[in-house]
Amino acid sequence: MAWSHGSLALKMAAIRDDLILEGEFELLAKKKLTHRVTLTRSGLFFHLVSNSSTTYQEKCVKISDIIGCHGFEQCLNVNKSTSSAHHGSSSEYKNGEAKPFRYIPQNTDASACGFVVFAYPFKKKLFSNKKVRTKQVLVFEVPTDSVELLDKRKTVAETWRNIINCLSRGLPVNVNDIASCVPPPRGRMLLLINPHSGPGKAYTIFKNEIAPLLFEASIPYKTIVTEYAGHAGELMKTINLAEWYGVVIVSGDGLLFETINGIMQRDDWATSVKFPIGCLPAGSGNALSCSINYAAGEPVDSFLVLHATFVLVKHRVVPMDLVVIHIPDRTLFSFLSVTWGIVADIDFESEKYRTLGEARFTVGAIKRIIGLRSYKGRVSFLPVAEYMAKDGTGSSKVLAKVRRLSLDSRSSSKGTFNSEDSNSSLGCNSKIFVAQSERQLDSVGGAGDSFVKTGVVTTGGDDSCDLHEDSSGSGGGDAGQIRKESCEIKDINTTSQDTQLFDSTSSPELDVPPGSINNPGLVDSENTTNLQQDVHLKEHNAQASRSPVNGCSVQHHSSMTIISDAKEISVEQETYHVNKAKSTAVPTPLLHPLDQDVPSNWVTLDGNFILAIAVYQTHLGSEMLAAPDAHLSDGLIHLMMIREGISRNALMNLFLTFDQGRHIYSPYVEAVKVLAFRIEPATKNGNIMVDGERFDPTPIQGQILPGVARVMAIK
Ligand SMILES: Nc1ncnc2c1ncn2[C@@H]1O[C@H](COP(=O)(O)OP(=O)(O)OP(=O)(O)O)[C@@H](O)[C@H]1O
C-alpha cells in the first residue's frame, strides 16, 4: 500500500489514539533497511525511512493475523543461526516433550538483538479465488546506533515482544504502564496423536504442519502417540488434568469421541467436562475441526490443518454442547451426531476406503444410492418450537411448547440443571421479554476474574448470544464469578407466533487468556460434586407429576412472572432434585427409560425412512455442511429426516447440495430443532453411528447437555 506524505499523516492521525509503541528498527530482509514501526491495537505498521519526498511504502500486519512474537539476542548463539522458525526435527523432542526454542535469524552480527513477528495473513491463491493463510516472518533488529548499550536495546526488543504477544493473545495492554505488560507463559498442552487416523499420516502432519505454529506461538506441549484403540480414553480417565492446560487431539473424530467419553467416565466428570479440548484434523472425517473452523470464519475447504492450527493457537475457550446418549446397555456422550439410515451406512461401509481420506464418503455415497434401501422405524423428538410434519397425511400439525434447556450452576455451592419453556397457548402478543436473572457460576476463568455479561439472545435455531463481556479483576482468587445482569430475549422464532422464554445463562463464552493458569475450565474440587449432588430441572408448564427419571426426583417449585405488553403471565416451574445417592449420574430429565414410551409432549413419526440424523455441529465433513445454522453451543439438536419416496436421482442431487448446506431447503428434508430425540429401528438392517462409531440398530435416544464441554475455538 503506498501512502503519500499527506495521507500518511492522516493515517497516523487516525491511529494516534490507538498508538501503543513507535520506533525505528532495521528490517532484516535481503538487506538491512531502517523502518519506522508503529504498533496499534489493530496492527503493526511499518515503512521505509527514506529521504524521498514523494511516497512511502506503508505495510501493515493485522494483530488478528499474528500468532506470536519472539525476542532474539544473536550474540548468545551465532553459530546455530537459521533463517526460519526451526522446530520439528526429531532431535528437538525427548519423550514427546517439546524443548524451548530460540529463534535466531540469519545475517545478524554478534551484538544484534530485536524481535521476530510470526503472522499468517490471508493471501489469494494463484489461479483460484480461494483465500489461504500464508506465513509471514518479520525480523526487526534494534539499531546499534539508536541505543548504545546492549542491555537497553534488549529492553526495547523485549517491550515490543511483550506488547505484541499481549495484543495477539487478546490480553489487556495498559498504555500508561507499558513496562508492566508481560504476557503470562502459555499453558502446557497434551497432544494425543492417532497414528492410524485417516490415511495414517497424523504424526507427519503434526511434525510438518502443526509443530512449527506451536513453536511460533510459544505453546509448550507434550505429545503422546496412541498405541491402541481405547488408549486416549484410558488416559483421559486417569491423568491428573490439573497438570495440563488442555488436551489437543491430532486425529479424526473417533479419537475425540474416545477422549470425551474417557473424561465423562471420571468421578469428577462435572468439572473435568470443562477441561479444554482442542482438535486438529488428521482423520478422514474431521467434522469437529471443520465446525470449529467454520464458526471461526476460517476456511474448511483448503489447508484445513493450517487453518485449524491457526485457530488453536489463537483460541479462546468456548462452551460446546454435548448430547447424552442412551442405548440399551450403555450411556455415551456425543459431540457430533447420531445417524441412522443411508448416512450411517455410508459412514460405516466406507471405513474400508479410509486411506482415501474424505473421498471415502463420495465412494460410499454412490454405492449406497445405487443400492438404495429404506429403513422402517419410529423417530420421536421433543421440538423446541411448533412442529409441522411434512408427510402429507394432513393430520400431523403438532403444536409443541417452546422450550429451552440449560445447564446452570447457580452458586459456588449448587449446580442447577434448568429447562424452561413457556406455554405457546399463553396468548401473549409480544415476542419480547426481558428476563432478569443473576447467577454465580463456578470458577471458569480460574484466575478469579469477575465478568459482567449482558446478553441479547435470539433463538429459533440461532443462539447468537451477543455477549458484552467486561472482564475486570487481576486474578489471584480461586473462584471466578459470572454475573449475568440481564438477558433480553427478542424475536424468538421467525416461524412461530409462540412466545418463549429461556434462561440463557448456560454457555457463557469463556475468554481465558491461554497460559494464564492451568485448566481454565476447571473449578476447585470442592465444587466438583455439586453439579452431581444438586440438580434442578425447571420446566414451565410441565406435566403436573412425573415419575422419577434417571435418579431425579420431582419437586414442584414456585411460579415465575413474565411481563410482556403489560400483561403478567404466570408460568409454573418444576424442579428436579437429583437423588444424592446417585450423584455420579449425568442427569437426563427429558428422557424416559428406553423400555418406556417417550413423554406425552413429544412428537412421534412412524414409517419408512431413508435417513434420520441428529446433528449438533455444523459439519459432518469438510464437504458436508449438515446443519448450517447450528453453533457449537446453541443448545439444540438439529434433527433431519428423509422419508421413503425420494428417487435415486433426487437423492443424489440432494447430496450434491450438502456442501453448501442447501439440503435443508429440500422438500424431501424434514428439519426440526429439538432438545431430545429417540430413534427406534424396526429392522436389523443397517447401522447406527454415534460420532462415527458404529452401533447395532437398536433403540437409541439422546438429550442435549447445553454448553457443558469446553473447546479451543474462536467465537
Ligand atoms: N494406535 C492405535 N491403533 C489402532 N487404533 C487406534 C489407535 N489409536 C486410536 N485408535 C482408534 O482409531 C479409531 C479411528 O480414529 P480417528 O477417528 O482418529 O480416525 P478416522 O476414523 O480416520 O477419522 P474420522 O473419525 O474423522 O473418520 C478411533 O476409534 C481410535 O480408538
TrEMBL record:
Its EC number is 2.7.1.91. It is found in: Endomembrane system. GO terms for biological process: regulation of apoptotic process; sphingosine biosynthetic process. GO terms for cellular component: cytoplasm; endomembrane system; membrane. InterPro entries: ATP-NAD_kinase_N, Diacylglycerol_kinase_cat_dom, Lipid_Phosphate_FormReg, NAD/diacylglycerol_kinase_sf, YegS/DAGK_C. Residues 494-508 have a biased composition (Polar residues). SMART domains: DAGKc. Signal peptide: none annotated. Residues 462-481, 494-514 are annotated as: Disordered. It is an enzyme of class 2 (transferase). Pfam families: DAGK_cat, YegS_C. PROSITE patterns: DAGK. Transmembrane segments: none annotated. Keywords: ATP-binding, Kinase, Membrane, Nucleotide-binding, Transferase. GO terms for molecular function: ATP binding; sphingosine kinase activity. Residues 184-329 form the DAGKc domain. SUPFAM superfamilies: NAD kinase/diacylglycerol kinase-like. PANTHER family: LD11247P-RELATED (PTHR12358:SF112), SPHINGOSINE KINASE (PTHR12358). This is sphingosine kinase. The lineage of its organism: Eukaryota, Metazoa, Spiralia, Lophotrochozoa, Mollusca.
